[in-house]
C-alpha cells in the first residue's frame, strides 16, 4: 500500500533551504514530499491538503512575527477536516516550544533545532505506527503540558545530507537563472539582537560547521548543468571569510570552481561582516565570480555597535565598503536606525553615516527598527527592565524619549511603501542594481552596460538623498515639536512629497530594469558565460554622467 505523502508548508519567496533539506532526506528514505508556499493562503492550502490526505504536515515557522498567521492556517486545516499529525519547526518554535504549543492547541509536536534526523524519524514512526514520543530532539503535548525530549547532537558532516529539494529556478535576468545554496551552518558571533548563536548553542555540537568546498562546487556544477543556474545566492548567516581556516576554505573553493570550469560562467553572492573583508581574499573571490556582498553593518555609531555587541567600529565598516567599491563588488547592508537605546542624536548620527556610506548611489539606503526576537540578549534586557510588550507575534517596546517614539512612528508612516513593499523603491532599486551588475559581467558591450550602470547609480543616489532629506526634516520636527496639529500637518506634507517621489523613482527603476532585461534577452543565451572583473580607469564598467536612457 502506498504511503501517504508528507506535506511541508513554508515561505518560498526564495528556495527555503531548511525545508529543502528536510524534503531531500525524506525523498532519500522513499517518501513522497509536497512543498506548499505559505503565501498561497489558507483556503488554497486547504484545498491542496484535503485532496492529498497526508501522513504528516510540517510547518516551517521561520518568522516569529507570522505566528498568528500560522495559527490561523492550522486552525483552518483542522476545521476543514485534516486530522493528520501537525509538526512545527524553526527558530522560534525551537526556542519557545512551550509558548508556541500553548498558543496553537492543534500542534502535535515541535522539532527542536536542526530537523533532518528528528523529522525523518518522526515520519518513519508515524508511517509504521510506532510510538514517536521518545524521539530525541522532539517536543510534544504531554498530559500536563508540553514536554521536551533530550536534544539531538548537531550533524557534524553536513555533506551527509543530500542536496536540498528546490522549487523550479527563476531568472535573475533573461538567460540567467539563480539558486540559493549553503556553504555551512551557524555563526561564532553573539550580536545582541540575533538568535542564531542561541539556536546553534543549545544542542550538543560545534557552533559553526562548514561543508567541504568541493561538495559546494559540485552542487553548483549540477545546478548549472542540469537546471541552467548561473547565479548563486549563498544563504549562510556568516559566510566563511574571517578566520585563517575560512580563508583556506575559500582558496580551495575558488580552485574547485576553476577546476570545474565554473569561474567565468557563474556569479555568486555572500553574507558576511564588514571586518571580514580582506583585499587579497576578496579579490580572489571576485575573480572566481563573487559579485555581491550583504554586510551586517546595523549601526552608524560606535556606541550603537557596542550595544549590539558587534565587536567592530564605524571606521571598519566604512573601510570595508571602500574595499568593495575598489574591487567593483556590489554591496547591500542591514541597518537598524532605531533600537531600544535610540535618542534623537543617535538617529541623526546614523543618518549622517548613511550619507557617508552611500550618497554616491553605490547602495540603496535601508533601515529598520530592532525587534526583540526570542532568545536574544535584547529580549532579555527589555523583559528585565519591564519594557517588553506584546504577545510573541507582536513583541515590541517603547522608547524612553517620547520624541523618539513619535519619530519612529512618523518614519513608519512616511517610508512604509518605500522600504516595506515589493514594489517599493528599496526593492526596485536593489534589483535594478543587481540586474545591471550581472549585465556588466555578461557579454554585452561594456559601453552599453556601463551606461545602464551609470544611470542606475545616479537614480539610487538621487533617491538616497531624497530619503535623507525627508528623514532629517522629520528629526527636526521631533526636536522642535510643540503644537501637535502643526507638527502632524508638517509630517503629512513630508509624507505627500515622499509618496510623489516614490511614484517617480519606482517608474524610473522599472524602466531601467526593463532596458537591462531587454538587452540581456537580445544579447545573451543561457549558455553564455560572464566576463571577469573590469580593469582599467573605469574598472566597474560604469559610464558616469550618462542620463539619456
Core attributes:
549 residues; alpha/beta; seven-stranded mixed beta sheet; 18 helices; 16 strands; 15% strand
What does the model show?
The protein has a seven-stranded mixed β-sheet with strand order 2-1-3-4-5-6-7, sandwiched between helices. A seven-stranded mixed β-sheet has the order 8-9-12-13-14-15-16, with helices on both faces. By secondary structure, the protein is of the alpha/beta class. The chain is built from 18 helices and 16 strands. It has helices at 17-28, 42-52, 67-79, 91-95, 97-103, 116-128, 196-201, 213-227, 244-259, 279-287, 302-307, 314-327, 344-358, 377-384, 402-420, 425-440, 446-480, 484-523; strands at residues 6-10, 33-37, 56-60, 85-89, 109-111, 138-142, 145-148, 170-173, 176-181, 184-186, 208-210, 229-234, 267-272, 290-298, 330-338, 368-369. The protein starts with 5 loop residues before the first strand and ends in a 26-residue tail after the last helix.
What is shown here, in short?
By secondary structure, the protein is of the alpha/beta class. The longest helix is centred in the last third of the chain and has 40 residues. The termini are far apart.
Amino acid at each position: 500500500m502506498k504511503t501517504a505523502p508528507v506535506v511541508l508548508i513554508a515561505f518560498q519567496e526564495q528556495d527555503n533551504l531548511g525545508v529543502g533539506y528536510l524534503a531531500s532526506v525524506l525523498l532519500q528514505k522513499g517518501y513522497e514530499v509536497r512543498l506548499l508556499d505559505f503565501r498561497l493562503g489558507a483556503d488554497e492550502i486547504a484545498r491542496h491538503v484535503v485532496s492529498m490526505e497526508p501522513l504528516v504536515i510540517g510547518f516551517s515557522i521561520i518568522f516569529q512575527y507570522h505566528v498568528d498567521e500560522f495559527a490561523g492556517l492550522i486552525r483552518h486545516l483542522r476545521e476543514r477536516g485534516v486530522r493528520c499529525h501537525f509538526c512545527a519547526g524553526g527558530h522560534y518554535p525551537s526556542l519557545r516550544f512551550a509558548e508556541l504549543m500553548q498558543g496553537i492547541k492543534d500542534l502535535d509536536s515541535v522539532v527542536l533545532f536542526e530537523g533532518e534526523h528528528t523529522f525523518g524519524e518522526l515520519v518513519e514512526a508515524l508511517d509504521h505506527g510506532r510510538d514517536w514520543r521518545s524521539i530525541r530532539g522532539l517536543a510534544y503535548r504531554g498530559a500536563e503540558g508540553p514536554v521536551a525530549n533530550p536534544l539531538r547532537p548537531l550533524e557534524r558532516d553536513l555533506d551527509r545530507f543530500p542536496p536540498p529539494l528546490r522549487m523550479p529556478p527563476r531568472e535573475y535576468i533573461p538567460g540567467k537563472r539563480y539558486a540559493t545554496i549553503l556553504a555551512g551552518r551557524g555563526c561564532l558571533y553573539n550580536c545582541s539582537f540575533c538568535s542564531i548563536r542561541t539556536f546553534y548553542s543549545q544542542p550538543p555540537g560545534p557552533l559553526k560547521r562548514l561543508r567541504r568546498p568541493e561538495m559546494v562546487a559540485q552542487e553548483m556544477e549540477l545546478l548549472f548543468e542540469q537546471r541552467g543556474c548561473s547565479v548563486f545566492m549563498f544563504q549562510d548567516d556568516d559566510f566563511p571569510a574571517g578566520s585563517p581556516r575560512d580563508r583556506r576554505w575559500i582558496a580551495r573553493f575558488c580552485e574547485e570552481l576553476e577546476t570545474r570550469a565554473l569561474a567565468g560562467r557563474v556569479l555568486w553572492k555572500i553574507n558576511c561582516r564588514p571586518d571580514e573583508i580582506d583585499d587579497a581574499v576578496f579579490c580572489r573571490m571576485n575573480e572566481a565570480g563573487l559579485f555581491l556582498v550583504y554586510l551586517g553593518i546595523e549601526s552608524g555609531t560606535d556606541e550603537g555597535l557596542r550595544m549590539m555587541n558587534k565587536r567592530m567600529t564605524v571606521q571598519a565598516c566604512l573601510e570595508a565598503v571602500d574595499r568593495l567599491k575598489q574591487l567593483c563588488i556590489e554591496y547591500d547592508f542591514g541597518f537598524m536606525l532605531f533600537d531600544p537605546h535610540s535618542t534623537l542624536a543617535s538617529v541623526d548620527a546614523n543618518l549622517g553615516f548613511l550619507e557617508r556610506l552611500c550618497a554616491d548611489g553605490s547602495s540603496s539606503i535601508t533601515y529598520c527598527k530592532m525587534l526583540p526576537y526570542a532568545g536574544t540578549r535584547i529580549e532579555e534586557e527589555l523583559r528585565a527592565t519591564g519594557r517588553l510588550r506584546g504577545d510573541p507575534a507582536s513583541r515590541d517596546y517603547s522608547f524612553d524619549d517620547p520624541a523618539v517614539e513619535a519619530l519612529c512612528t512618523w518614519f513608519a508612516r512616511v517610508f512604509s511603501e518605500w522600504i516595506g513593499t515589493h514594489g517599493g523603491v528599496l526593492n526596485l532599486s536593489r534589483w535594478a542594481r543587481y540586474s545591471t551588475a550581472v549585465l556588466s559581467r555578461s557579454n554585452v558591450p561594456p559601453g552599453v552596460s556601463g551606461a545602464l550602470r551609470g544611470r542606475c547609480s545616479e537614480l539610487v543616489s538621487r533617491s538616497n538623498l531624497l530619503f535623507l532629506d525627508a528623514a532629517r526634516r522629520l528629526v527636526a520636527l521631533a526636536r522642535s515639536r510643540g503644537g501637535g496639529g502643526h507638527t502632524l500637518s508638517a509630517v503629512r506634507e513630508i509624507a505627500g512629497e515622499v509618496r510623489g517621489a516614490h511614484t517617480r523613482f519606482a517608474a524610473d527603476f522599472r524602466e531601467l530594469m526593463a532596458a537591462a532585461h531587454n538587452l540581456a534577452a537580445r544579447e545573451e543565451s543561457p549558455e553564455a558565460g560572464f566576463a571577469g572583473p573590469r580593469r582599467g580607469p573605469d574598472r566597474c564598467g560604469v559610464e558616469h554622467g550618462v542620463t539619456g536612457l
